[in-house]
């Protein structure tokens, strides 16, 4: 039941043309990342950054805008940010304060 409920809410969020960044909160090891990875199949491209990895965290310390980060990541992962729908998932975002500030 929980899985279907959260998945449906993610679909509603994605269909909102005026959506804002979405924050999933919950206890550790309950499946947040798993449900997002499953949900990513609804998109043309999926970018998963984990800010516990130094290379991913460095993106936020060396960049000043989300668009700049998207350009670097799209180049690194060979993804065209001009085509299709992209889901950007930033895991462990709380470890990098600048990342949270950039999304506001």
From TrEMBL:
Boundaries of every AAA domain copy: 19-103
A UniProt-annotated Pfam family: AAA_14
Protein name as it appears in the record: AAA domain-containing protein
Source organism of the structure: Proteiniphilum saccharofermentans
Lineage, broadest ranks: Bacteria, Pseudomonadati, Bacteroidota, Bacteroidia, Bacteroidales
């Amino acid at each position: 039941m929980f899985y279907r409920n959260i998945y449906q809410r993610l679909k509603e969020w994605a269909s909102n043309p005026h959506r804002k960044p979405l924050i999933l909160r919950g206890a550790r090891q309950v499946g947040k990342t798993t449900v997002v990875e499953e949900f990513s199949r609804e998109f043309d491209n999926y970018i998963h950054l984990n800010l516990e990895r130094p290379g991913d965290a460095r993106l936020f310390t060396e960049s000043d805008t989300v668009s700049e980060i998207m350009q670097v990541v799209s180049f690194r992962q060979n993804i065209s940010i001009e085509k299709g729908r992209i889901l950007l998932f930033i895991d462990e975002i709380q470890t990098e304060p600048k990342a949270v500030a950039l999304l506001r």
